[in-house]
Amino acid sequence: MRHVLANDSSEVSNDLAAAFRDRVFVEYANYWAEGAKLPALSRARIVSNFSMSEGLEHLIDARKLGRGVIIVLPHIGSWEWGGAYLDAIGFGLTAVAEELEPPALFEWFKKKREAMGISIIGLNDRAGAILLNTLEQNKTVGLVSDRDIQNNGVEVTFFGERLTLPAGPAVMALRTGAPLLTAAAYSGPHQGHHAVVNPPIPFERSGKLRSDVSALTQLVASELEGLIRRAPEQWHDLQPRFRRD
Fold first, then answer.
1. Fewer CB within a 10 Å sphere, N or C end of the chain?
2. In terms of Cα–Cα distance, which of 228, 225, 200, 220 is closest to 57?
3. How far, in Å, CA of 107 to CA of 30, rounded?
4. What is the side-by-side order of every strand in the sheet holding 50-54?
């Protein structure tokens, strides 16, 4: 929270950081409670629960290009509600999820999310090929990419610190020409939800894949910062991230 709340003009007080820290755990509990309801809700109920969809036209326009769409999300609010909403309005969503141990637990999560309308593939050696095939069919891929789970990502500046984020979204966008957007699905206001979709990230190739992947991943990181700062208390990243800490 100190990193997210920091600005150039003042230090983050202990009281402010603690208040947001406590709200994180309340919102995280809310995330699990809301997610448990989703498989039982009708599509009409899910759509009506979204009080606002800011920037949905960016997603609609990107889909018209016919190359598929890559949506990059942070662990914020309820990305599952966002995926269920996209399915309810006819977009659908294919997402990658960490393969948990034991395998039965991963299968339970997979079935739960597929009941919400989200197609889940495991984060393994086959995931890339499946995602590329999904994009070739002009479908939507969602990648929660504010954590480098495999520890093989690209180094970027994120909230003023150097760390790594997954390179997958940038690699796929550069290889396929699919539009790359960042988005988030927030809890609230009140008992509802609202979605924010940013315009496709403009990017011109330099001819060197490695440097292009690094540059594009940095642009993604900067947009994820903006989405997280809109509701810091809803950022569910409860693991050590920053080297200075």
1. C
2. 200
3. 23
4. 50-54, 193-197, 180-187, 69-73, 140-144, 93-97, 118-122
85-99 burial: b if 16+ Cβ within 10 Å, else e: bbbbeebbbbbbbeb
Q: How far apart, in whole angstroms, are the C-alpha atoms of residue 41 and residue 31?
A: 16
Q: Where are the domains of the chain?
A: 12-234
Beta carbons of 116 and 80 less than 8 angstroms apart: yes
In eight-state DSSP terms, residue 118 is: E
Written as one string, the DSSP assignment of 89-114 is: TT--EEEEE---SSHHHHHHHHHHHH
**Closest Cα to residue 47, out of 74, 9, 85?**
85
| Residue 120 Rama label (left phi>0; alpha psi -120 to 50; beta) | beta
209 three-state secondary structure = helix
pLDDT tens track for 103-136: 999 999 899 999 998 999 998 888 999 999 999 9
Strand partners for 41: none
At a CB cut-off of 8 Å and minimum separation 6, what does 134 contact?
A: 68, 94, 141
Distance linking the first and last C-alpha atoms of the chain: 12
DSSP state of 64: T
Q: Is the pTM of this model over 0.90?
A: yes
Instruction: List, in order, residues 6 or more apart from 40 with CB less than 8 Å away.
Output: none
